[in-house]
Write a structure and sequence with these properties.
Length: about 375
C-alpha cells in the first residue's frame, strides 16, 4: 500500500517542482485525507433504451418505487412528441400527474416547477424533452429533494444522465449542481425522428471528452485538482467509440441513435462518478459558452464544443486532424461556416474563453492573445 502511494506521489508532482521530503509528506497527508473522505456517487438505477420504450415509463416508475403524484415537465414541442403520451400512460397506471410546460430554463422557471411540485404534493418529477427540459427537471427536483426521471426526445448532449445543468443568466448560461436521474427511459424510435442536427450535436459533445480529460489531467498536475482515473477512462472510452464509429453513425437510423444515446449516458455517468463535470467539460466547453455570450446566433452546444475540440486538441499537441475528420464524417460542423458564425466571433471567443468558469484550469491558462487566437483558428482551418 505504501509503495503504491509513493509512486503516485512522485508522479503527481509537477516536473519543475523540487521534490523535497516536506512536499512529499504534504502530498501524502492530502492523499490519505482524500482516501478517508467518504465518496458519494449518484447514478441512475434503471436505464431503458430501445424501440418503443416510452410505453415502459409507468413500469419503470413502479420498479423504482415511485408512487402517487408526479409533475411532468415538457415544452410545447416535446408535449406533442411524447409528453402527452407520457401523461396518458402514467394516468392509466394510477398516477396523478400535473403537466408543466416550459419555454426556457431560468431561475424563475426553476421556482415555478418547485412551486407546482409542492402544490400538488409530487413525489417525483419527469422531464420529457431535450436539454432545457431535462435540466429544468433535474435542478428543480434536486432543490426540493425528490427524484426525477429523464425521458429524452433528442440525443443532442450528455445532460441525459448527468448531475449538472445549464441555467440561463443575463450574461449567458452557467453550470449548476443538480442530481442524476433515478431512471432514464430513452425511446430510440422517438429520438431517431429528431432533426439530424441534434444527433450530430450529441456526437460533438461526446468527442469533446478527449480535450476535457486532457485539461483535467493538466489541472491535476499543475493545480492539484481532484482527479478520478476511472471517470477519466470512462469519459475517454465514450469519445473513442464515437471517433472509431464516425463513418457508421447515420441520422434517423435507430441503431445509430441507440449507440450515441448509450455513449451520452456513459458520459453523464462519468461526471457522476467524478462528482464534477470535468471529465466532459474543459477548454472546448469554455469556448462554446463564450460563443453563447457574444455570437448573435450561437449554434447548438455540441456543435460548438466539437469545433472547440479541434482547436483545443491542437493546443494540447494532439491529433486534431482525426477529430476534424470524425466530425466531418458524422456531418457535424468543423469550422465557422458550418456553425453559421462569423470568424471574428470565433477569435473573440477564444480570447475570453478562459474567463468562463475561471476556477476550472485548462490549457487556456490565463488566456491567449488575439493574434494567437487567430493563428489557432487558422491553422486548424476553423476560419
Amino acid at each position: 500500500m505504501n509503495d503504491r502511494i509513493d509512486v503516485v506521489l512522485v508522479y503527481e508532482i509537477p516536473q519543475r517542482q523540487k521534490i523535497t521530503l516536506n512536499n512529499l509528506k504534504a502530498r501524502y497527508i492530502s492523499l490519505l485525507n482524500e482516501i478517508r473522505t467518504p465518496k458519494w456517487m449518484q447514478l441512475p438505477r434503471e436505464i431503458v433504451v430501445g424501440h418503443g420504450t416510452i410505453n415502459e415509463i409507468a413500469n419503470a416508475c413502479k420498479k423504482l418505487g415511485l408512487h402517487d403524484s408526479v409533475v411532468v415537465v415538457m415544452d410545447d414541442l416535446t408535449r406533442k412528441i411524447a409528453g402527452d403520451n407520457v401523461c396518458e400512460i402514467l394516468a392509466d397506471a394510477g398516477y396523478d400527474f400535473s403537466a408543466f410546460v416550459t419555454d426556457s430554463i431560468t431561475r424563475e422557471r426553476i421556482e415555478n416547477v418547485k412551486a407546482r411540485a409542492e402544490e400538488v404534493g409530487a413525489s417525483f418529477i419527469v422531464g420529457v424533452g431535450g436539454g432545457t427540459v431535462i435540466d429544468l427537471a433535474k435542478v428543480s427536483s434536486a432543490q426540493i429533494g425528490i427524484p426525477f426521471l429523464s425521458v429524452p426526445t433528442t440525443a443532442a448532449h450528455d445532460g441525459i444522465a448527468s448531475s449538472r445543468a445549464s441555467v440561463k443568466e443575463e450574461r449567458g448560461s452557467i453550470s449548476m449542481a443538480a442530481q442524476s436521474p433515478l431512471g432514464v427511459v430513452a425511446d430510440t424510435e422517438i429520438i431517431a425522428k429528431a432533426p439530424p442536427r441534434f444527433l450530430r450535436s450529441g456526437c460533438g459533445d461526446i468527442i469533446s471528452n478527449f480535450t476535457a480529460v486532457r485539461d483535467w489531467r493538466l489541472a491535476s498536475r499543475l493545480k492539484n485538482a481532484p482527479y478520478s482515473a476511472y471517470a477519466a477512462a470512462l469519459s475517454e472510452m465514450t469519445a473513442k467509440m464515437i471517433i472509431e464509429s464516425s463513418g457508421a453513425i447515420k441520422p434517423n437510423v435507430e441503431e445509430s441513435v441507440r449507440f450515441v444515446v448509450k455513449a451520452l449516458i456513459s458520459s453523464g455517468v462519468a461526471m457522476s462518478i467524478a462528482g464534477t463535470s470535468a471529465p466532459a467539460s474543459g477548454s472546448e466547453h469554455k469556448f462554446s459558452h463564450a460563443l453563447d455570450r457574444i455570437a448573435p446566433r450561437p449554434a447548438m452546444h455540441g456543435e460548438q464544443c466539437g469545433v472547440g475540440t479541434i482547436m483545443m486538441m491542437h493546443l494540447h499537441g494532439g491529433d486534431w486532424r482525426s477529430i476534424r475528420r470524425a466530425l466531418s464524417d458524422i456531418g457535424a460542423p468543423v469550422d465557422a461556416e458550418g456553425l453559421g458564425i462569423d470568424g471574428a466571433y470565433i477569435v473573440e471567443a477564444l480570447t475570453i474563453a478562459h474567463t468562463i468558469n475561471p476556477d476550472r484550469y485548462t490549457i487556456l491558462g490565463e488566456g491567449i492573445t488575439e493574434d494567437a487566437a487567430y493563428r489557432l483558428a487558422s491553422v486548424t482551418k476553423v476560419i
